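Hi W.,

Here's what went into the run:
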Amino acid sequence: MNSLTTYLFIAAALFIIGIFGLLQRRSLIGMLIAIELMLNGASVNFMAFNRFLAPDPIIGQVYTLFIMGFAAAETAIALSIIIAVFRRIHSINIEQARDLRG
Amino acid sequence: MTPLQNFFNPTFLAQTAFAVILICTFAGAAIAVLPRNILYNVLGLILCLTGVAGIFLYLGSPFIALMELLIYVGAICISIVFAIMLSRPLHLSLPKRHLPKVAGAGGVALLVFGVLVSIIFKTPWKPADLRSGDWSVATMGSYLLTRYDLVFEVMSIVLLVAILGAILISGTSGRRSS
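Here's what came out:
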């Protein structure tokens, strides 16, 4: 509970659950959820290094806030793209969005 | 020591709470990835993010834990729920699961996990020589406006551009094409 390795393992597990979900899903919203899990794994990593290694405990918190802001921006863009795609092809299945396929 | 005293021992309580938080996090992550119904996925994501907020509490930062709840659970999950309601009726057929794809995804995930674990064990983690113990929100606020000013500004501009782009994409694209 109080060692760096524990938290690194938690972060790695969250990250690989995200990778698994991202590769296995084909609904766009499911992939977005998996990306959120991966970003959270990265946040936990930053906070763990911040707690156990960093010279100044502000840096990790600032970076985690940064990740959260980017996650919010990314979600806004992704959801609007999903809604636009849904209007065009009436589905959020990734395999039917193949207009740009060569 | 009686069992009751043993139960109210602070160390024991802290460990139990940590175990509960871990169970919440990983059960939530599994629910977020595995079921095919997209609404269960969002509920699992909410459970998982609440657990991550608890982990941030254990890492010594109540402020970040609060922000996690506010931004992720409060804003991101709710907007995902809105997108689900706008995109597809839930009673339509659920997407089929293709076994080779799941197996491949699991293989890649295990591979990445192996690499990460070997990195965790091979690197000699050394704490910095001089560590300040100042965790207060006031210090963080003054750093955000002085030394890490760029982070703050970049985050603001990215959020502004993202919101404008979101309005533009979802507001205009459909009407022209359909």
